[in-house]
Amino acid sequence: MSTALATPGLALFMLCVVMVALTAVVYQFASLGNPLTAPWAAARGAVQLTVVSLILAAALIHLWSSLLVLAAMFVAAAFTAGRRAKAGRSAAWLSIALVCGIGLVIPLMLVSGVVPMTGVALVPIGGIVLGNAMVATALAAKRGLDAIDLRTGEVEAGLSLGLSVRDARMEVVGSAVSDALLPGVDQTRTVGLVTLPGAFVGVLLATESAVQAGAVQILVLVGLLLAQTCSVAVAIELVARGVVHRPGTRALR
Predict the structure, then answer these.
(1) Are the C-beta atoms of 101 and 239 separated by less than 8 Å?
(2) Do 74 and 118 have their domain in common?
(3) For the chain, first and last CA: distance in Å?
(4) pLDDT value at residue 56
(5) 56-112, pLDDT tens digit by residue?
(6) Residue 154 and residue 170 in contact, taking contact as beta carbons nearer than 8 Å
(7) Which of 56, 78, 221, 246 could bridge across to 95 with cysteines, CB 3.0–4.6 Å?
């Protein structure tokens, strides 16, 4: 009997169909909304994962194609971060924050030799780091811009005291964006006690070695702390200097 987890086949397909159907039934009887919500989400997710799996299966064979995949992921992350920050065209500058995060962590991992220079290693690690840096960057920029909009009086008070525009804005931006780093810090603090993160579970299932899984997970978590910290620091600097601003707002510096 095979010990592989979730091997593609009829059994997996039927199990997923049954679970989706049961979810739809609960939706219907508990009045949670349209019962077709879950089936539609599952079907869409299955199609997306199938396409991505086929692309990655071909791309990970070569290093150059793996780098193209990472580049495409970066573009998507930069676009998503900008959209969530609601900063209009100026949000394009947030890509600098993402570069500072992933551009420091990934080279360190490669130079150290801990992460091999192969597509099968670069794409998963790079994707995890990039995705978390994106979330932190978007949250920091949004919170910072919201703080400037809501606490305009405090900014003006700072300016009246002789502070520069950057310093006056930083007084309200700095305290507002601290929450952007909390998810990463809390995840690191509680790993293994409250949750088993995806990297740990993935390596554990692949290698059946808890020690190897723990080593990979701590590498990922420490890398995320550095990437998110750098990205948030750059993001709030861009907001404070007015480089990233809300549409219709004059970009003072």
Answers:
(1) no
(2) yes
(3) 67
(4) 82
(5) 888 888 888 889 989 999 999 999 999 998 888 898 999 999 999 999 999 999 999
(6) no
(7) 78
3-state secondary structure the chain: CCCCCCCCCHHHHHHHHHHHHHHHHHHHHCCCCCCCHHHHHHHHHHHHHHHHHHHHHHHCCCHHHHHHHHHHHHHHHHHHHHHHHCCHHHHHHHHHHHHHHHHHHHHHHHHHCCCCCCHHHHHHHHHHHHHHHHHHHHHHHHHHHHHHHHCHHHHHHHHHCCCCHHHHHHHHHHHHCHHHHHHHHHHHHHECCCECCHHHHHHHHHHCCHHHHHHHHHHHHHHHHHHHHHHHHHHHHHHHCCCCCCCCCCCCC
Q: Which residue, chain included where needed, has tokens 């573009």? A: 75
Sign of CA dihedral 162, 164, 169, 175: negative
What is the residue whose two structure tokens read 């998503």? 80
Q: Which residues pair with 191 in a beta bridge?
A: 195
Judgement on whether residues 34 and 90 belong to the same structural domain of the protein: no
One domain, residues 123 and 145 = yes
Residues 163 and 173: beta-carbon distance below 8 Å: no
Residue-level pLDDT at 249: 64
For residue 61, count CB atoms less than 10 angstroms from its CB and return exposed for 0-12, middle for 13-18, buried for 19 or more.
exposed
Q: Are 114 and 209 in contact (CB under 8 A)?
A: no
Distances in Å between the Cα of 28 and the Cα atoms of 22, 35, 43 are 10, 5, 18
Rounded Cα gap, residues 161 and 166, in angstroms: 13
Pair (29, 151) in one structural domain? no
Residues 139 and 179 in one domain: yes
